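Deliverable D2.4 — example input (structure tokens):
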């Protein structure tokens, strides 16, 4: 009887853990034609090409929030899917297209930097994880945070 109860509990936990996964990208959309053997057709892979990989905000007054859009193009042969963007600091936030980017299409990644509590030179990285080869691409934002003079 205890075995039956354990099976029911494990089944319920498994079912509960699968709930809420409707926001995931369907597997059929993600095309990564690389194989473990290394055989691939590079022309079929999605490729992300940025206009520039680094942006310098220049001098920023402490407490200011500044933003920039990194423009990119899918220069590959299949749909580009950005899975996630991680930042090196909680002071940096980003938004990116959630839908697949078709070959030849252009999009942008919005980045904002909150200078509150910061001072001096700041160098923050954003790691873009996508279905490209290599899978991670790093972007950088810089700023010189200055403290305003008190009157």
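Example output (designed residues):
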């Amino acid at each position: 009887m205890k075995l039956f109860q354990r099976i029911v509990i494990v089944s319920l936990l498994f079912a509960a853990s699968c709930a809420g996964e409707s926001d995931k990208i369907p597997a059929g959309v993600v095309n990564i034609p690389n194989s473990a053997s290394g055989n691939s057709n590079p022309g079929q892979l999605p490729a992300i090409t940025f206009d520039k990989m680094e942006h310098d905000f220049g001098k920023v007054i402490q407490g200011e929030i500044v933003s920039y859009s990194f423009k990119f193009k899918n220069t590959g042969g299949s749909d580009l899917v950005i899975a996630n963007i991680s930042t090196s600091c909680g002071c940096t936030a980003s938004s990116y297209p959630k839908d697949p980017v078709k070959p030849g299409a252009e999009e942008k990644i919005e980045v904002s930097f909150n200078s509150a509590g910061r001072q001096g030179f700041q160098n923050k990285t954003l790691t873009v994880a996508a279905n490209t080869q290599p899978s991670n691409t790093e972007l950088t934002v810089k700023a010189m945070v200055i403290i305003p003079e008190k009157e």
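The chain has a mean pLDDT of 84.
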